[in-house]
Amino acid sequence: MGYDSQISFTLDTICPWTYLAKRRLSKALDQVRSSNPSSPVTFHVKFMPYQLYPDASKEGEAKYSWYKRAKYNDSEEKMKMYMTLMSAYGANEDIDFKFGGTVANTLDAHRLIQWVQEENGEEQASKVVDSLYSQYFENEKHPSASETLLKAATDAGIPENKAKGFIDDEYEGLLDVKMLIREQAANGVDAVPHVIVEGKRRDFTLEGAKDVEEYVKTLEQVIKESG
């Protein structure tokens, strides 16, 4: 008897650790699917919204100086250490982290992800998330400007006029996404990435960006306990 396991992947599109986690989880899923071709478990990823900086403005501010001030007490040395570390982590996952650009409110990015997920399903939602990540972290684009969102939608195969209609109506899907963010907080999510893998007997919660091996181990445990 087959079993569907939902993987709830809670992210913010301006969190580098969620970018790393998504890459690693994707690798783990590919690995587990190819090594368990007759597995009774079908894994589905569902993206859930979280805002690290809900009070950030829509316009935003310079990412480098914001990071240095907010996270590293204006220390150039600590900022350089962080950049060296993230660059190394990124290189392992074929991510070319850059540190310029803008930190800004991500609510509209989450609104887009949820809309595509509802309308078009997991695969296209995943492509939207990938595009938002690469635009922000590797191309220094604004995380939720209309042109960024439109590119993410069209990268995922959404017709431009349909995507533009949704993006331009800033209220469409807004209440739903705000409710989901509140639900995540009510469920105790206070940092991202936060991954819950549903199992037949129990659920597994993975907080922070885990290694590929740890995601593999968890997925295989779900398969093992599905009988």
Automatic annotation (TrEMBL):
Segment forming the signal sequence: none
UniProt-listed Pfam families: DSBA
InterPro entries (alphabetical): DSBA-like_thioredoxin_dom (IPR001853), Thioredoxin-like_sf (IPR036249)
Gene3D superfamilies: Glutaredoxin
Example of a GO MF term: oxidoreductase activity
Span of domain DSBA-like thioredoxin: 7-219
Protein name in UniProt: Thioredoxin-like protein
Organism: Lineolata rhizophorae
